[in-house]
Amino acid sequence: MTHLPPFDTPLDRAAESVPRIGGRHWGSITLKNGLTECDISFVACGHIHEREGVATVADTPCLNAGFRSAYNVTLEGDDVSIADVEPLEW
After folding, report:
1. DSSP 8-state assignment for residue 15
2. Which pLDDT value is given to residue 66?
3. What is the dihedral of CA 36, 80, 5, 31, to 10 degrees?
4. Structure confidence at residue 70 (pLDDT)
5. What Rg do the C-alpha atoms of the chain give, in angstroms?
6. How far apart are CA 49 and CA 6, in angstroms?
7. Cβ neighbours around 46 below 10 Å, total
8. Greatest CA span in the chain, whole angstroms?
9. Residues 76, 79, 81, CA angle at the centre, nearest 5°?
10. Can you tell me whether residue 11 is helix, strand or coil?
């Protein structure tokens, strides 16, 4: 689990509407390098709120929960399952 998503992926681009930084990548270069150099089975992050979703980076499933926390993640050995579910109503 990390705050920033991996750099230069679909999970780390700020929305075009954000002043001064819109459209730029804001993820972690160190995390992206770690994914290519280490055997990491799953990454969960959430910093770039408007880019919630799932992407595979260096064969590692990465989840950016963004504004919502409505994913069901199952980790069993080397198998990772990520399912989109309806958010809870508060």
Report:
1. P
2. 78
3. -30
4. 73
5. 13
6. 14
7. 20
8. 43
9. 90
10. coil
- What is the model's pLDDT at position 49? 81
Q: Which of 37, 28, 36 is nearest to 1 (CA)?
A: 28
Residue type, 83: A
Give the sheet arrangement for strand 43-45, strand by strand. Answer: 43-45, 60-64, 53-57
**42 pLDDT band (50/70/90 cuts)?**
very high
**Which phi and psi angles does 82 have, rounded to 5°?**
-125, 120
75: left (phi over 0), alpha (psi -120 to 50) or beta: beta
Q: Which amino acid is at 18?
A: V
Cα–Cα distance measured from residue 41 to residue 79, given in angstroms and rounded to the nearest whole number? 8
SS3 category, 86: coil
